[in-house]
Amino acid sequence: MESSPIDSSSNASSGLSSSTSSPPHSDRDHRQITLTVTQLEQLKVEEKVSEIYRILSGAPAHTQTLMLELWRDKHIEFLTRGLNQLGPTYRVLDANRPWLCYWIIHSMALLRESLDIEVENNAVDFLSRCKDINGGYGGGPGQLPHLATTYAAVNTLVTLGSNSALLSINREALREFLLRMKDFCGAFRMHHTGEMDVRACYTAISVASLLNILDFEITKGVGDYILRCQTYEGGIAGEPGSEAHGGYTFCGLATMILINEVHRLDLTSLIDWVAFRQGLEFGFQGRTNKLVDGCYSFWQGGSLFLIQRLLSIAENQIKSLPMSIEQEQLSMEGNVDSAAFTVPKPDGSQRQIHYFENKDAGKGSATGLDFIRTTNGGPLFHSIALQQYILLCSQVLEGGFKDKPGKVRDHYHSCYCLSGLSVSQYSFSKSADSPPPPNAVLGPYSNLLEPVHPLYNLVLDKYYKAHEFFSVMS
Fold first, then answer.
1. Of 364, 448, 411, whose CA–CA distance to 152 is shortest?
2. Which of 287, 404, 407, 467 is labelled catalytic?
3. pLDDT tens for residues 72-85?
């Protein structure tokens, strides 16, 4: 989920120098301050963003309104063109074709743009050809099934929303695929013998929750793994011992909500870490001391949007004295029982794995529905300022969105900038279904997008239909 790396062509050796007075006979007449590549890039970004904001502040009111307008028609044109035909430069994304479907189709749904029936049928047919006979979806027809592209494919089919799209999902085979990807430690692997991380846990749990196949067999041990990934800073890393990251923090937090174990996270330090990732440009950075990036408008903004509904848990954590692991386990109001299972070791001996049985496991579908009915607190980030960054610094007037000034547009950033714009607009709403007040939407009120379900990043109406469709299936 990381954006493009910093341009290595920057001159890391250049810096700012200043002369200082030295004692007599000193062999140092001045000191040289050398900036890192990231610091130099940060200064460039700050300069570009400051110039954009200076133009806005000095413009007449009518011009400001035009500058803050969401260029809906241009975005739809860019997205439609991408859905029909992509150029040769997209060959590097051959193993991500379900993602391209999701990024584009979800973006169009946010913009309230419906698809032609022929395009919709073609999308269902293509994703069906990406489906593995033994469950899961690959990056393209005939490719290895992978949890990330499975998540993208399922979200795309739910966004399409037709009966043919939803019926094309083989729930039984997909459940078997999820179980094959599950490691004995409780976490998931992205594909057969692939990497194991928080992203894999989220995509597996999100899919299982959406399709109403979430049960204890799928959820056992997942919470323990994610707890090991929460860092000293408060954010969540991709795997134990790594650095906290915005995309993984969203994935870990959403997963813990879906499996009813979010109270086990240190929410107070998580709030601090995410909130301080909103920089002076008003957008979010993905990691400490990194550059702002438009895609984190959703990954970080979405995490804070989720936490708005968890403030009572965070407040209780603040009031509580620190507890040992054993005390925490006993405090979970009878919803957790200790259990264990045995796995063979390479030397022929056996290893006992302890885990905790969540008696509410298997209610993930209901959790997703109940969560958006929870009373909404006020936003934990500057939502208007974030909208300003998205509209002025990430929006491309010819259509689409980009990482930051100086970068180029793409479908990934278009999807997550629009998703971030939506959660920003609805951050003051009293409920998931209620429209935000006019002063919560920057620019003309016509900028208002469709609301998203923050746990799955699906347009809310599309989620409701899928929930109803799969709830009747056992």
1. 411
2. 287
3. 999 999 999 999 88
